[in-house]
Request: fold
Amino acid sequence: MMVVMVMMAAMEKAVEESMVVIMVSMVVVVMIVVDHYLKYSYIQQKIISSAGRFKVVSFVPVVDE
Reply:
Protein backbone atom coordinates (compact mmCIF):
# COMPACT_ATOMS: atom_id res chain seq x y z
CA MET A 1 0.00 0.00 0.00
CA MET A 2 2.87 2.40 0.80
CA VAL A 3 4.35 1.93 -2.67
CA VAL A 4 1.02 2.81 -4.30
CA MET A 5 0.69 5.95 -2.14
CA VAL A 6 4.24 7.03 -2.98
CA MET A 7 3.61 6.46 -6.69
CA MET A 8 0.36 8.46 -6.52
CA ALA A 9 2.13 11.33 -4.74
CA ALA A 10 4.97 11.25 -7.26
CA MET A 11 2.52 11.28 -10.16
CA GLU A 12 0.65 14.28 -8.72
CA LYS A 13 3.88 16.28 -8.41
CA ALA A 14 5.32 15.06 -11.71
CA VAL A 15 5.52 17.28 -14.79
CA GLU A 16 4.26 15.88 -18.11
CA GLU A 17 7.81 15.21 -19.31
CA SER A 18 8.78 13.21 -16.22
CA MET A 19 5.41 11.42 -16.46
CA VAL A 20 6.45 10.17 -19.90
CA VAL A 21 9.79 9.00 -18.53
CA ILE A 22 8.07 7.19 -15.64
CA MET A 23 5.56 5.54 -18.00
CA VAL A 24 8.28 4.41 -20.43
CA SER A 25 10.51 3.05 -17.66
CA MET A 26 7.59 1.17 -16.08
CA VAL A 27 6.69 -0.38 -19.45
CA VAL A 28 10.32 -1.37 -20.04
CA VAL A 29 10.57 -2.96 -16.58
CA VAL A 30 7.34 -4.90 -17.12
CA MET A 31 8.53 -6.12 -20.52
CA ILE A 32 11.89 -7.23 -19.06
CA VAL A 33 10.21 -9.05 -16.17
CA VAL A 34 7.74 -10.79 -18.49
CA ASP A 35 10.54 -11.71 -20.90
CA HIS A 36 12.68 -13.19 -18.12
CA TYR A 37 9.69 -15.07 -16.65
CA LEU A 38 8.75 -16.53 -20.04
CA LYS A 39 12.34 -17.59 -20.73
CA TYR A 40 12.73 -19.07 -17.24
CA SER A 41 9.45 -20.99 -17.38
CA TYR A 42 10.32 -22.22 -20.90
CA ILE A 43 13.78 -23.40 -19.78
CA GLN A 44 12.28 -24.97 -16.64
CA GLN A 45 9.71 -26.77 -18.79
CA LYS A 46 12.49 -28.04 -21.09
CA ILE A 47 14.51 -29.30 -18.11
CA ILE A 48 11.50 -31.06 -16.62
CA SER A 49 10.47 -32.63 -19.93
CA SER A 50 14.00 -33.72 -20.95
CA ALA A 51 15.56 -34.62 -17.59
CA GLY A 52 12.43 -35.67 -15.70
CA ARG A 53 13.24 -37.03 -12.25
CA PHE A 54 16.99 -36.43 -12.79
CA LYS A 55 16.31 -32.75 -12.00
CA VAL A 56 15.51 -33.67 -8.39
CA VAL A 57 18.55 -35.97 -8.12
CA SER A 58 20.90 -33.24 -9.40
CA PHE A 59 20.26 -31.14 -6.25
CA VAL A 60 21.45 -33.93 -3.92
CA PRO A 61 25.26 -33.63 -4.56
CA VAL A 62 25.08 -29.86 -3.93
CA VAL A 63 23.38 -30.44 -0.56
CA ASP A 64 25.88 -33.14 0.42
CA GLU A 65 28.85 -30.86 -0.17
Q: What stands out?
A: The chain is about 90% helix and 0% strand.
